[in-house]
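Q: Got a minute? One more chain.
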Amino acid sequence: MSNGLVDMVVAGVMVGVLLIGAWLRLMAAAVLELVDHNVVATSSAILLAFAART
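A: Always. Here it is, folded:
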């Protein structure tokens, strides 16, 4: 493998990890907001976040 290809694969993996982390933080913020405003119960909000993950 050439060095440039390895760099591109590593950069792609790093971007993927950052995007997954951002998505998880967004879901955590949504769960906290729903629970804080009494829109849904805590367990239901966690279930909704888990369902949105897939």
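A: The mean pLDDT is 88.
Q: Perfect, thanks.
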